[in-house]
Amino acid sequence: MTDFLSGKTPIHEDYFSVRNHVGLIDLSSRGKIEVTGKDRVSFLQGMVTNDVKKLKAGTGLHAALLDSEAHILADFHLFAFEDRFLIDCRTALTQKILDLLGRYLITEDVALNNRSESLAWLGVEGPEAETLVQKIAGEEFDFLKPFTFRNTEIGGIRAEIFRLSLTGEDGFYFLAANEDKKRLSEFLLTQGKPYGIGRFDKLTLEELRIEAGIPLYDKDMDDKTLFSETGLNDALSTAK
Asked: Would you place residue 199 in the very low, low, confident or very high pLDDT band (cuts 50, 70, 90)?
């Protein structure tokens, strides 16, 4: 049976790699927004649906922006560094998030910086992803839980490794300087050969996330959708 999204059969090679081994995807086009300034915690705490104050450096969460009637305007991943936050979002939401946050900046010491062009974002997902990451990064990454990350050196390249899944499989994403993307990609492919690594693209990612029941903004929800209807329970703190 042909898949209606990609015209491929459900057992095409890149799909098979992610479901059975490990797949590599380049999502460097995703939005990457840095939030800096001494008021960044209190500002974001008042803007998003989740509890920003609980974040320690090296941790993150899923969050959303709502309008005054609780319709969802955007959702994203938010990660805490020692001196800044990083927002990871769909490409199409980058400018919208910048505009929504910027609209409410008045006297706060907060700066928003679009780093989408300067940072690469490569992911490995699949049942062998953790084994591959342990091989190339060392056993210190045994501690990693979802939405946590750590800085390390991968094949001579400085990068942050995030535990994050966009497919429903076990996943890890590498954040590095854009000029290091090609070298990092080649290193991951070389190191992943014993684990059956293969590249997969955004069409395959779409198949995988639908099967996993992961909702996507502008496809499964939009600004007419109440947050309570989205099913994004992990993006909400009822205690903040």
From this structure: very high
